[in-house]
Each structure stands twice: as structure tokens, then as C-alpha cells.
Amino acid sequence: MDTLSSINEIKIAVQEYRELKKELKRKRTKLNSLTAKYSFIDTMQSTDVDDIELENNVLDLLMSIGYNTQKPKEKRDLDGYATYNGEMIGIEVKNSTGISENEMFQGLKYKGRNDRKGLETKTTLIVWNNAKSNQEFDSFRIEDAEIHKYGIITTKELVKGFIKVINEKISVQIFHTILTKEGQIKFSNKKIKELE
After folding, report:
1. Given the DSSP bridges, would you call strands 80-84 and 87-94 parallel, antiparallel or unpaired?
2. d(C-alpha 57, C-alpha 52), whole Å
3. Torsions phi, psi of 89, nearest 5?
4. What sections of the sequence does the record tag as coiled-coil (predicted)?
5. What is the DSSP string of 74-105?
6. Measured distance CA(113)–CA(132) in Å, rounded
7. How far apart are CA 183 and CA 164, in angstroms?
8. Is the separation of the CB atoms in 125 and 91 below 8 Å?
């Protein structure tokens, strides 16, 4: 190879190869970094994610697009809080095959206690990881959410909205407006067009 490397054509090809190899390494490092940064998206839609990890992933998702998030200090409280433009959302995360009526109202119960203490939230949001059952909210759960003025959303739908923000299809303000609606929350194109 030493004799061959004295040929200019080979020298240039070797140099181009090394430059491409360095560039490929930089691209791979960037890809690995981005994959690690957004890995919570797959985790929060997984069938084997544990409850605490799911709660943290939901808060990480919101924090990554501009929300201030925090975990509660007390054990008997909502799973987290997310604030955007001064409006606080109380978040209750559910990670089960099915979601009972009692579980649906748990967030509302904690919101009432917090409002009484002076920690007022704009709304309560129930986030359900439905990956184990792949079912949607039934009509009774949707009706309860509308009557009692809280929002319900699946992790899949939350991720769908997040991706629309990351890909600049919607603003964080539109995301927030949809997220604070009552009843079942969807990031459909129809809902988005209504707000634009």
C-alpha cells in the first residue's frame, strides 16, 4: 500500500474516505444523541413501563417543549404539575389495562384538595397509557370528563401532539390550548384548524 499511496488518485481517494468516515461518525453521534433525547416517547407508550417512569416521561415530554414541570411534595397528590404561560395543569397518570371510574375521578379529588389549599390549577388532565389493552376511552369516561370539566388523553395521543410541536406543525400555545380542553383530548387536524 505504501507504493500505491504515492499515486495522487489513491491519495485523494484515501483522504476523501477518511473525511467521509469522520463525517459519518459525527452523524452517528448526533443520531445517538437525538435517539437518547427522545427515547421517552417509545418508553411512555410501552406495555412494560412502570408507573413512576411513566409519570416522569410525561413530565419530561412537557418540559422539553417549554412547560415548567414539578412533582408534588406530598404522596397523596396528583402525579405532577405542568405550567405554561401561568396556567397550571394538574396531571394524573394511569398505567393499567383498563381504567376504572374511581381512577378517573382521583385527579379531580386531588385538584379539589389543592384548590382548597390555594394551589389552583386551570384543569386536571388524566393521561392513560393504553398500550396493554390498545383500547380507547369509552363513552362513559368521555361523558364524565365533559360533565366534571377535566381532560382525558392517551399517551399515544399526547405523543402525537408532541411530535406536531417538534415538527413545527403547531405552536406550543395551540398544543396547550388543546391540552387544557375538557373531555377527550385529540390532536386531530380538524381540532387544530379550529384554533388557527
Report:
1. antiparallel
2. 9
3. -110, 130
4. 7-37
5. SSSS-SEEEEETTEEEEEEEE-SSS--HHHHH
6. 31
7. 21
8. yes
pLDDT of residue 155: 95
Per-residue pLDDT tens, the chain, 196 aa: give them: 577 778 899 889 999 999 999 999 999 999 999 999 999 999 999 999 999 999 999 999 999 999 999 998 877 778 899 999 999 999 999 988 888 888 888 887 887 777 777 777 778 999 999 988 888 999 999 999 999 999 999 999 999 999 999 999 999 999 999 999 999 999 998 888 887 6
Which numeric CATH code is attached to 46-195? 3.40.91.30
Q: By C-alpha distance, which of 100, 53, 96, 56 is closest to 80?
A: 56
C-alpha cell at 41: 416517547
> What's the farthest any 2 CA atoms get from each other in the chain?
84
Written as nine digits, the cell of 11 is 491519495
Side by side, the strands of the sheet bearing 123-128 are: 68-70, 80-84, 87-94, 123-128, 151-154, 183-184
The whole-angstrom separation of Cα 93 and Cα 103 is: 10
Q: Are 183 and 154 in contact (CB under 8 A)?
A: no
All three cell numbers of 3? 507504493
d(CA 47, CA 96): 9
